[in-house]
Amino acid sequence: MDACVIRDFVAVLGRDNVLTEPTELRTYECDGLTGYRVVPALVALPGSAAEVAATVKVCARHGIPFVARGAGTGLSGGALPVADGVVICLQRLRRVLEVDPMNRRAVVEPGVTNREISRAAAPYGLYYAPDPSSQQVCTIGGNVAENSGGAHCLKYGFTVHHVLAADVVLADGTVTTLGGDSPQQPGYDLLGAFIGSEGTLGVVTRVVVRLLPKPATVSTVVADFATVAAAGDTVTSVIAAGIVPAAVEMLDNLTIQAVEAAVAAGYTADAAAALVIELDGPDDEVTEQFGQVLELCRRHGSTNLRVAGDPAERELIWRGRKAAFAAAGRLSPDYIVQDGVVPRGRLGEVLVRIAGMADAAGLRVANVFHAGDGNLHPLVLYNRAAGELERAERLSTAIAELCVELGGSLSGEHGIGTDKACSMPAMFTQDDLDTMQRLRAAFDPEGLCNPGKIFPTPRLCGERPGPYRPHPLEVAGVIDRW
Amino acid sequence: MVTRLRPESLAELRDAVRDGPSRLLITGAGTAAGWGGTPAPHDAVLDVTGLNAVLAYQPSDLTVTVQAGLPLAALQDVLAKKGQQVALDAGRIARGATVGGLLATADGGPARHTYGTLRDCVIGVTTVLADGTVARSGGRVIKNVAGYDLAKLFHGSLGTLGVIAEVTLRLHPLAEASCTVAAACTPERSLELAHRMMRDALEPVALEWYDGRLLARFDGTASGVTRRARATGFEEADPSVWQEVADVSLGGPGDTVFRIGTLPGLWPWVAARVRARTASPPVLSSSLGAGVHTVRLGNTTASSFDRLREDIAGRGGGTVVLRRGIEVPAWGPPPASVAVMRAVKQRFDPSDRFGAGRFTPWF
Ligand SMILES: Cc1cc2nc3c(=O)[nH]c(=O)nc-3n(C[C@H](O)[C@H](O)[C@H](O)COP(=O)(O)OP(=O)(O)OC[C@H]3O[C@@H](n4cnc5c(N)ncnc54)[C@H](O)[C@@H]3O)c2cc1C
């Protein structure tokens, strides 16, 4: 990067908060999707919202692309730097500015971790509902960008349901506020459209989140099943009974083994599948519905029901579930985390087809997923040293596209980022994508803000984003274009 | 007379937009015709009520896809047979409001305390833009982060960005039992009572101050709702009061009706301001958890209304006019994001074909 441009950043941030040494820059070359790496030209470490705006202004003045970065736990390459571009790291903006128990909200800087918000709210009996497994480290800014979910989003929704307002630095360096003090706002819901835009519409510098009172009762059970299908049918029958559990998670046998080896959370090692079902809410409702859930588990052949007797036991069950990705390291030297979604009624079908595809590829796939909403996290296990990477990537992509074919989505919570941009034409037509680009152009006409993400580009995808192909749902006769 | 176009399929709708006259006023059942600014002269009315089919309903997935012109009340009847609902109870629903119209107006009722508005239930849309482009975003599954969520953009768009043609919604189960309670109180006191109810995790599904009383509704099991209702210490109330609350937004001839969003805690201040600025007693309701206040005035002047709106803007509140019995500009001081709204309008509808006048004087 040109020395006088660097000087402009230094003038704004001070020498200590501008990184240009290759060894320092390398820390920022990738996020949780480590297969993609790009060393940025410069990393900016602003310490205030005003410094973020000033940094973006320098970028805009020189036409330099920039990428916001929180904790770098993203799994889709959303925070992958742009070569010759700037990474704006928000880690220094980590103050909880206000907790307002009367209005049940907190005002925080973007670098505050998800867990920290609930910790700050706890003295008032309140908490922040979305709970991604990465909540110890991931930032609220990253959550807003990815519209992150968590195990409890079947009942409570995603980040978009829990953010009331955000201050955003737009690509030209101007600052605006999306949303406001109340969900009732005049005009287009720009905040709703911004959440989940993967850092492509602006940099968040302040977030107002909604806090919820802690539920009166929480009940959790782990149930073992002899087949994955039986576990899936159990979930269907729970929903059919009019029960919306706070969480329903499913683990297959491979995942159970890995989790047990890692955390010894008390899952039965030889069960074909386990369900973690949690209900929360008022006492009577939870007690009555929890009884129904246990009965439905039994009716579908579960012989081993372990009900969490106290908060510590519940914590252990969840620790097991949340450690599932990390534990995959015990099954295989390398793995890819996939994140497709299918309509819940098609869970059984998709699992059979994934197993078939894995066999054909000569690879193993462990499955752990949010069964309540059909969000799969197949873990494609492979050995890079044995040259299996490319095969694994192909299998992983095929699984995501299979989800679309079955009427679902490429991503339930990890985002499209760099990882799945080339698969977007499997889910959306060129017209759909062009329409989304209109929104992007409204926020960022020069295309400086996190370019190259979400949308397929010839550079990233080769010739693949070709002319219109019929939507898979049209081919399947599910929808009709005309 | 202005031409009326009434397509009956997505293809006909696209053709009507692509081949139709220049300036179009999009309408559903017409239950919110008075919302926002007065429409500028237009060449045709584009009536979406001919698109009124249920396209796909998967009870076990808690999702439904419908054409946007379907009245929500008709959809609720279909869903109720499977013990499900769209969790929205805006006053206009009983008058035939359509799914697309309810999304485009960002309307809501007392259940917003728990479920929000259609923005919180919509998981996919198909829209027709001014140049005839048919664009989908979102999908048919509850959880989905692929691409931008354009459905949100259309929430509150009042027919100015494009035509909402199809909508996919997330559903909720109907409760087995429900119980409504009420206590007479001032707006000040209602805040304390509401706070206590939430702190005690009683989980009211709706919580409103209306006509001198704090109302709470509990949904759940028969024993559960009774126990929680009792824990409030309030009197049991007739559940028909919820329709009355929702109906504050409707108003009659000569009324001026508007909705205000503020910090929930500002409610007593809002109530006092409204009363101070109006001659005759206003009808007021407030969703205490969300900070959404709906106000109906039978008798007011343009200058006192304007001043009231400025007072509210001064405390960070936004106002949407639902009905104007007097001549006032539809919009008060614009929010900081109005420049972005203008840019979005410019990209989606550059020649201003849809709903000209709705956002005057903002754009
Ligand atoms: C072990 C593990 C478990 C996970 N579990 C879950 C889960 O259960 N649910 C889930 O949803 N996700 C999960 N994730 C994914 C990831 O944690 C989330 O996407 C998270 O929101 C990313 O936050 P971050 O701070 O790390 O963001 P980063 O990875 O730094 O960035 C993510 C994206 O956000 C943008 N961004 C960051 N900060 C800002 C800002 N201030 N303004 C604008 N854009 C910004 C970046 O440009 C990038 O596009 C998991 C990840 C790991 C590693």
Short recap of the structure:
Chain B: It comes from Streptomyces viridochromogenes. Chain B: Residues 1-174 form the FAD-binding PCMH-type domain. The complex is a heterodimer of chains A (482) and B (363). Chain A has 482 residues and is α+β, with helices and mostly antiparallel strands.
What do these coordinates show?
- The complex is a heterodimer of chains A (482) and B (363).
- By secondary structure, chain A is of the alpha+beta class.
- Chain A has four domains: 87 residues, 2-Layer Sandwich (Uridine Diphospho-n-acetylenolpyruvylglucosamine Reductase, domain 2); 118 residues, Uridine Diphospho-n-acetylenolpyruvylglucosamine Reductase, domain 3, CATH 3.30.465.10; 109 residues, Alpha-Beta Plaits, CATH 3.30.70; 74 residues, Alpha-Beta Plaits (2-Layer Sandwich), CATH 3.30.70.2740.
- Chain A is built from 18 helices and 18 strands.
- Chain A has a seven-stranded antiparallel β-sheet, with helices on both faces. A five-stranded antiparallel β-sheet of chain A has the order 5-6-10-8-9. In chain A, strands 1-2-4-3 form a four-stranded mixed β-sheet.
- In chain A, a hairpin with a 5-residue loop joins strand 8 and strand 9.
- The radius of gyration of chain A is 23 Å and the shape is globular.
- The C terminus of chain A is likely disordered.
- Chain B is α+β, with helices and mostly antiparallel strands and 363 residues long.
- Chain B has three domains: 171 residues, Uridine Diphospho-n-acetylenolpyruvylglucosamine Reductase, domain 3, CATH 3.30.465; 63 residues, Gyrase A, domain 2; 77 residues, 2-Layer Sandwich (Alpha-Beta Plaits).
- Chain B has an eight-stranded antiparallel β-sheet with strand order 14-11-13-12-16-17-15-18. Chain B has a five-stranded antiparallel β-sheet with strand order 4-5-9-7-8. Chain B has a three-stranded parallel β-sheet with strand order 1-3-2, with no helix packed on it.
- In chain B, a hairpin with a 4-residue loop joins strand 4 and strand 5.
- The two termini of chain B are 27 Å apart.
- The relative contact order of chain B is 0.14.
- At the A-B interface, strand 9, helix 7, helix 8, helix 10 and helix 16 of A face helix 1, strand 4, strand 8, helix 6 and strand 10 of B.
- Bound molecules: flavin-adenine dinucleotide.
- Flavin-adenine dinucleotide (FAD) binds next to strand 3, helix 5 and strand 10 of chain A.
